[in-house]
Amino acid sequence: MVLEITKIGNPVLREVCAEVSPERLASAELQGFIDDLIETKRHANGAGIAAPQVGKPWRIFVVEVKDNPRYPYKPETDLTVCVNPTVTFLTDERYLNFEGCLSIPDLRGKVARCPHVRIEALDRHGVPFSREVRGITAGTFQHEDDHLNGILFPDRADSRSFSTWAEFALRYEADIVESVKEIVSEWGE
Question: In a 3-state reduction of DSSP, which class is residue 7?
């Protein structure tokens, strides 16, 4: 089922989300919720989505990029469900990229992200995993993890870089596509 996406101003987007116990994760309710979260992300053409973006203050997010018309320049990324994740930066380097958010329609802004991180989490079945993620994809994981801590991308962006999607497409997208190619060439993903 496609869920309603919460928008900026909704207090749930500013909450530090609660961890999900393995027993609760195994429940039919949570498994159904994860299915709905994935369907909602796909329906909205998001690169990722976190539980608070559909009104639930739980430490769950999903990331996936496959032929995404909203982000045609992002590398493809297999579906990854992260429950109770931690993100560890593996380099001091940063890159700037324009980000958007399903909870903040029609706004883009430049955010500095770490190009190499380790994600440690439970998968949807409660199995722990650790994965190193690089490049633009690392930024996507950081964006979704921020949601679990009540942080929205404008909190991290230079407000002078804000633009609507139309202005982004007109003025900045071509340069960002080249920048993304450079980041992927250097870092992968």
Answer: coil
Q: For 148-177, what is each residue's pLDDT tens digit?
A: 999 999 999 999 999 998 999 899 888 888
Active site residues: 144
- Please name the residues in contact with 133: beta carbons below 8 A apart, sequence gap of 6 or more: 116, 117, 118, 119, 141, 189
Cβ proximity of 128 and 118 under 8 Å? no
Q: Is 153:101 a contact under the CB 8 Å cutoff?
A: yes
Q: Residue 9: which region, alpha, beta or left (left: phi > 0; alpha: psi -120 to 50)?
A: left
Longest dimension (CA), the chain: 49
The pTM of the full predicted model, rounded to 2 decimals, is: 0.94
Domain borders along the chain are 11-187
CB 108 within 8 A of CB 168: yes
Looking at CATH, the fold of the domain delimited by 11-187 is given as: Peptide Deformylase (3.90.45)
